[in-house]
Structures are given as structure tokens and as C-alpha cells.
Amino acid sequence: MSEQTPVTPPWQQPGDRFGSGLVTTIPGAPPRQPPPPDEPESPQPDGPKRRRQQMLIFAGIAGAILAVGLTVVLIVVFSGGGDPFRSRAEAPTDVRPPLAQACPAPTGSPSAAPTRAPGALPPVTGARTTDTEAGISYKAYGAPWEPWTDVWRAGTLEVPYRVGQHFVTEQYSGGSYHASILSAAVPAADNDAVTLNLECVGRQVAADVRAEYYPQPNTMDPIRDELTTLGGRPAYVSEFRLHFSAAGLTATEELSAVAVIDVGKTTAAVLYVSIPGTHKQWDRAIDEVFASVRPV
């Protein structure tokens, strides 16, 4: 076997420009800088299209809020059973008695006469009628008078006469006609009132007597209309003679008197005496009964 002399490839020859080896920088040269980044694009200005989009968004939000609010209002209106927009409650109904509504309590003494300290009252004797609810007692008579046993709610004021005496003077097409001495208690003041407007209450009751207790029309001859005292208590007295006519009724006139007495309660005592013209012998009963009144 023979050996050949090795030949060096041209790319490995020293000094050849294709020779392999490490690539290095030239000592002392500055490092290479990376290329600068691209400049950012400037923002595009808002245009009409973008503004329209914003307005649509805002309008949608407002519409949603309005729809929710309207839904709440409708729920309140149809489920609450009332008026949700009423700013104040309705005025309360006046539940006071009719006389208390018509005659507010006075701010002072209505008259010096009824409020003077009474002197000693004369003792009472004989038969008496006592009305504990009204707070008074008064003279009672024998026959033809007899005890009153009904409850007569007379007139617009519906004064409830429960106690007293009466007798029938005649029968006619309208029923029985009576002479009467009757008493009742009527609410005439507010619950916290300590005095009554006696003159006002008395006039109201007397007017109701004339308008509701007797045939209509009628005429009146006034006899007495004053504040006074009965049984040492402040009172208002109205006395009058009425003239009237009714089919089948013999009586054409009647002497009547109404006393409203302050008995120191929120109710007033009412004492009503009526004597038909067919029995004038009993006209004296008005003065006698009123003079005999005593508080109980």
C-alpha cells in the first residue's frame, strides 16, 4: 500500500477570504444601536358618527330609568287602593252632638245672672218626679196626670224624653193629643267643655219644639225668653203660646215652655211643659214645675 501527500482545501487556506473563524467587532468601536420604534399614529378626532352613538347610548339609559319609574308608580296606584298623590289627609268628620256643633262652649260667662251664687232654696215637699239621667227633680201631680212610660225622640234634635207625666186631652185623626211635663238629657258640649252655651242651646231646643212638635204652620206669642236660674243652676227659659189648626183637632192653641238647665255635665237637662188650650186650668203648671226644680 502506498501513501499519498494530503492536499489542503482552498477554504481552509490561511489568509483566504472564505476561511472560517469567530466574528468580532473592532476593538474601540461603539456598540450598534437598535433601530428606533415606529411612531404611534395620532388619534382620530371624534366625528358626527361617534357623537350619534353616544347620544343613542344616553337615550337608552334614560328610557330604561323612565320605564322603571313608571312601572313603580303604576304598581302603587293599582295595588294600594288609594290616591298616592294625596298630599294631606281628608278633614276628620265632626262627630260632636248636633247641639255641640251648633253651640260651641262660651269663652266666658254668658250672663252674670245665671252664675251668681244662689241663695238658700226653699225646701221641697210633696210628690216629685226624679230624672237621674237629666240630673234634676221637679213637682209631680196626681190625676189626671200619670207617669210617662215611653221614650219620645222628638224633633230634628231627637231629644229623648224618658221621664215625666202626661195625660191625653183628646183623640183626633192624627192620633192622641197630650198635656205633658217631660224631661231629658241632651249632649250639648264637647267632652272637655266645662260650661254650656245655654242661650244658644235653649234657643235651638225651643225652635225645634215649635217646628217639630206642633201642627204647621203656626204662629207664636212670645212670653218669656231669658237666662235665669232654676234650682240654683244656670238655665235658659223660653215660654210662648202657639196658635195652629189641624183637621179634627179641637185645640187651636197651646201654652208651652222649655227650660235648658246646666247641671254641671256635658249633657244639659231639658224640661218641657205643654198645656193645650182646651185645658187652660193647668197653665199654672209651668210656673209651679219650674219653681220646683232641684239638681240631683
What features would you describe in this structure?
The protein is α+β, with helices and mostly antiparallel strands. The protein has a domain of 170 residues: Mog1/PsbP, alpha/beta/alpha sandwich (Protein Transport Mog1p, Chain A), CATH 3.40.1000. The strands form 3 sheets. Strands 3-6-7-11-10-9-8 form a 7-stranded antiparallel sheet, with helices on both faces. A 3-stranded antiparallel sheet has the order 1-2-12. Strands 4-5 form a two-stranded antiparallel sheet. The radius of gyration is 55 Å and the shape is rod-shaped.
Provide mean pLDDT, rounded: 80
Distance between the termini: 172 Å
User: What percentage of the residues does DSSP assign to strands (E)?
Assistant: 25-35%
Give the uncertain stretches in residue-range form: 1-7, 15-25, 109-117
Structural class computed from helices and strand pairing: alpha+beta
CATH third-tier fold name of the domain at 100-106 and 126-281 and 289-295: Protein Transport Mog1p, Chain A
Principal-axis shape? rod-shaped
What count of helical segments does DSSP give? 5
Helix content: 10-25%
